[in-house]
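Components:
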Amino acid sequence: MASINKACVIGSGLIGRCWAALFARAGLEVRLFDIDEAQVTTALDAIRDIIAELHDNDLLRDQTVDEVLQRVSGSSNLGDAVGDADYVQECVPEVLDIKRKVFEQLDEVVKDSCILASSTSCIAPSKFTHDLKHSANCIVAHPVNPPHYIPVVEVVPAPWTSELTIETTRAFQLRLGQAPVVLRKEVNGFIINRLQYALLMEAWRLVEDGVATPQDVDTAVSQGLGLRWSFMGPFETIDLNAPGGVVDYCNRYGDTISAVCREQEDTRAMKGTATAATVHAAMRQDVPEDQLKSGARRAWRDRRLAALAVHKHKQAQVEQAVDDK
Amino acid sequence: MASINKACVIGSGLIGRCWAALFARAGLEVRLFDIDEAQVTTALDAIRDIIAELHDNDLLRDQTVDEVLQRVSGSSNLGDAVGDADYVQECVPEVLDIKRKVFEQLDEVVKDSCILASSTSCIAPSKFTHDLKHSANCIVAHPVNPPHYIPVVEVVPAPWTSELTIETTRAFQLRLGQAPVVLRKEVNGFIINRLQYALLMEAWRLVEDGVATPQDVDTAVSQGLGLRWSFMGPFETIDLNAPGGVVDYCNRYGDTISAVCREQEDTRAMKGTATAATVHAAMRQDVPEDQLKSGARRAWRDRRLAALAVHKHKQAQVEQAVDDK
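Structure:
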């Protein structure tokens, strides 16, 4: 497997900045590209802030801020930015034509072994990576915001993506400290959003059908289901909920679950509905308009995610210490 | 609203013990009932362990273990156990006929203002609380195991449950430190399991259709979606994911989400399926049969839940300190 030592980030927005920080933390030389020189300068300052925050949270792998930061530089010239990069991460707007154009341009300047990864959350890679010289090197690596506190990355190959590209990308994400999940087929919404939408739509029905208030549905997750899910997935959850594991669980409860799920085959419209207005109004009771608009509540969310990342990091260390005994 | 000072727990199994500890922590006098005298004695020892663990985790509200423990006593005589209790929590096996019989017996011995709450996770209260003198006082208060670390409690009234009973139960759960959610209608699975099943069934389809491995689906939750959900629900999540909140989010993404959810109207069988065997085998790679059977992995889960409860408690204190400034 080709080793990845130099990375290039295309696009200097929020996600691009986060990727740059993660790459630099892992010891890579990073070049950040944006058409607009001023944007590059702004982004480099923001990257320093991310790296400093990781340092404050003891998540910089025992490096100093300057050690990590000096690995990052910027350029508004695509060829210079890409250079002989081993890995390029595209972070441009979620517009198919823009993705196509960027991948065509990258195709012309990258070295033959370079992996071309897109950060897209929703566009299948087959839609913008066909007919390229480096099609086999193209893949989606979709992070969740903010990726330095939410490790999962969806790795989505196109039908023509090589196994080497898939495996190299997966291994690279692990090296970054991320948690890659590999899709073996392109599906709408990939897997994270499909899982999220399934839960959201049931939440929606419960409110629309007058079973519970939006706040109480949120509480059922934030003070209930979400606690286990913050460190174990739905399958391990059921595995531990019957003496004999998953097969035993399915024998005991499978028919009941399938029956409830048949009741859930009832998709509702969300856009422009009365339920959207109801849920929106309910959210404004706890988070008034000004806190939403000012970004204060988003800042709260990100503080909580950072604190949880630190908590999980410490838990992993505790478990490692136990295993080592 | 009637004040609740004396509580009785019917059934000395795991959930009964946890309720007794929570009641005692909140300052109530608690009597634990079991037909079998020996079971009562065993349970009282286990309750001491729960209270001691809460103390070790700084979750005993600045009380000593003995202060809290001395509030708990046991009895194998139903009339003595109930006495003049203000609140009875039933924790007998999930068998309708047993629930009916217990509620009939309780109906004969409780004082008229006593609330009769069932811990059932799945039986609608209308099925075992009709034709009782105290029907209006009957309700479900379904905890999630272990309730001292997972606060949510589903409060499910029967059609004849009084508003006073609903509101008193809700307020009482808050006093215990739990997070009550009130169902306004009986639905199969209540709301926690309905939400859980919706996610689980999509996880199931992703594996059955060869999109991702069981481990990767679990990772998508435990290293992704579950992080936010450990402190905010699905509605607040979308509220913060569009500049203008829920209505804006639905305008931007609602049609896409509804389209994906229509693809999910495709319930699969779980019991006795090849997919059950596949998922089971995948789980055994990380947690071998002996760790499952010995309970070692369940103990790990409970340690993580305890650590997360402590983490969340501290986060709440931090936020309170910020609010107080």
